[in-house]
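ok new one. same drill as before - structure tokens go in, u give me an amino acid for every spot. 51 of them this time. try not to just spam alanines like last time pls lmao
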């Protein structure tokens, strides 16, 4: 898992809590495809639906 050091620095500057860091920095770094697919589905990309 590789987290961008600038993201860690930003979290320190804005005093983000541990859970906020986990949710928005570490989890997306661990599971990038999971978040990418989730955001894509929220955007209304229903291309796989058959009518």
């Amino acid at each position: 898992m590789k987290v961008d050091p600038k993201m860690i620095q930003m979290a320190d500057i804005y005093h983000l809590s541990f859970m906020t860091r986990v949710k928005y920095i570490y989890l997306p770094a661990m599971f990038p495809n999971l978040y990418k697919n989730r955001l894509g589905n929220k955007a209304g990309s229903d291309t796989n639906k058959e009518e």
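The chain is about 65% helix and 0% strand. and btw Residues 18-30 form the longest helix (13 residues).
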